[in-house]
Design a protein that fits this description.
The protein is of the alpha/beta class and about 475 residues long. It has 20 helices and 14 strands.
Length: about 475
């Protein structure tokens, strides 16, 4: 017989019922608008195969694949993390983000509310049992009527496939679990024996199975499902450009066998097929435990930021941009350490600038001075101007603001000054400037990328707090992260 339960008790769901996606008309924002903004916004979940932070550095299969697309089109990439109570398709159609990159299977239900690119992966859906389960059917027919509850989220392609099988007459018991449990967390609970069975894509199962014991495969319930990016249905130019990009990396030959580019194969090995050492490196247990931890320097950054009345997440975003959290980093221009301090501009002895705390204190103090210099501005412009000044210096910023004044525009508006910085790359402007040529594109991108990363860090912290307050934990004691395939 068919039944649906939940983590809070049994809620009977009518046979054939479907998850309802919000019916929101998509905003008008195609590639032209994205290109003009300079930012591509990727909607995803915090996950070891989509997007996560490793020692403060942004990584993940979906992130790296999307990052390369953004790089080829000279776009900054902003990550929009889906919150616990948010619908990614609503975020897409409302214009909060431009593309959902979250290992999504194309389903008719999802096609009703969004468009999809060409696929970049194909997967099989397989039933996965706990080794503690004495009965492990190996065919759908044997699973039918066995009484083994298969635990899945209702807002997942697994649920829709199981419902299809029920409609075909199979007697399956479907256990509805919280949407706050992702596939990896669910597989871990199955391995521990807390759940008897679930469904997973084969690539995700094989990745998890390298570092988890206690899982046993059952029947394939769906073959060759296509994985793609979801985009707004009224963005044909974005779809076309993404399709051309994906076609270079994934296509089918005449025998309908997938062919992948070297780049895509490297990503697959890195996140799904690598050695046990790499598997442990991306172990979701570590990811869950570290949710809310941005970098190895969090405590140090918080201490320094508090002493100077600064936002520690903003300072952390600056460190990520400046040095990638490498305290021994040295640029071609001689800038050193976490915050890339130029020795000739400070009184601190050169050797001490490689000390993490010293470098951080010096860099944060310089940024504090820049914020104070622009203290008469509104907060958003104040931060943008201070960041740009940290990157390009007060002299070039003054030149850019004079150009804005010459055009009778507002020199206290970052949108105006950022355009002027770009003009300082042109001879007819920089020849008249007091401080000469400036590679204006660098501070403009610097500000944009740091603020994008800052917002992502804010979302990660908010997600960690939400999970902690909501009490979403499994029996091993670490928080479940909200995401879904």
């Amino acid at each position: 017989m068919y039944g649906c339960g939940s983590q809070t008790g049994g809620n009977e769901v009518p046979r054939g019922s479907q998850f309802v996606l919000s019916d929101i008309d998509p905003v008008e924002r195609d590639f032209f608008d994205i290109k003009n903004s300079g930012v591509l916004r990727m909607i995803t979940y915090y996950s070891s195969n989509t997007y996560f932070l490793n020692q403060g550095i942004e990584v993940g299969f979906e992130y790296e694949l999307m990052k390369e697309f953004a790089r080829e089109h000279d776009l900054a990439l902003e990550v929009i993390i889906v919150g616990a109570e948010e619908n990614p398709f609503d975020l897409l159609n409302e214009g909060v983000g431009d593309v959902i990159a979250a290992n999504y299977t194309i389903t008719p239900e999802r096609r009703n509310v969004a468009g999809f690119t060409r696929p970049y992966n194909i997967v099989d859906q397989i039933v996965v049992y706990s080794m503690k389960e004495s009965l492990r059917p190996q065919t759908i027919e044997e699973l039918s009527g066995s009484g083994i509850p298969v635990s899945v989220r209702r807002n997942s392609s697994y649920y829709f496939r199981l419902m299809d099988l029920v409609e075909q007459g199979y007697e399956l018991e479907i256990d509805i679990i919280s949407d706050a449990m992702d596939t990896e967390a669910t597989l871990l609970r199955v391995a521990n024996g807390d759940l008897r069975a679930t469904v997973a894509d084969d690539n995700m199962f094989h990745a998890v199975n390298r570092y988890l014991e206690g899982l046993y495969t059952g029947p394939v319930i769906s073959e060759a499902d296509t994985i793609a990016w979801a985009i707004r249905s009224n963005a044909p130019d974005l779809e076309s450009r993404m399709n051309r990009y994906l076609h270079r990396h994934f296509r089918f030959n005449e025998e309908r066998q997938p062919r992948r580019s070297t780049f895509l194969n490297v990503l697959r090995r890195k996140y799904f097929e690598e050695s046990r050492q790499m598997a442990e490196y991306y172990n979701p247990e570590w990811q869950y435990q570290s949710l809310g931890i941005i970098s190895p320097y969090d405590d140090m950054v918080k201490m320094v930021a508090d002493s100077l009345d600064l936002d520690w997440l903003l300072i952390t975003a600056m460190i990520a941009q400046e040095s990638g959290f490498n305290p021994n980093s040295k640029s071609w221009a001689g800038a050193v350490g976490l915050m890339q301090i130029i020795p000739r501009f400070v009184e601190t002895p050169y050797e001490l600038l490689y000390d993490e705390m010293t470098n951080l204190q010096v860099g944060a103090s310089i940024f504090r001075e820049h914020l104070d210099h622009y203290s008469y501005m509104d907060p958003d412009n104040q931060v943008a101007f201070a960041l740009a000044t940290y990157n390009v210096g007060l002299g070039h910023m003054a030149d850019a603001r004079r150009l804005v004044i010459d055009r009778n525009r507002n020199p206290n508006q970052w949108s105006e000054v950022s355009e002027a910085l770009l003009r300082l790359m042109q001879r007819r402007y920089y020849e008249q400037a007091r401080f000469g040529f400036a590679r204006g594109i660098e501070p403009v991108q610097y500000v944009e990328e740091i603020l994008n990363r800052y917002r992502t860090y804010q979302a990660i912290i908010a997600l960690a707090e939400s999970q902690q307050q909501g009490g979403f934990t499994n029996l091993t004691g670490f928080s479940a992260i909200t995401r879904q395939p």
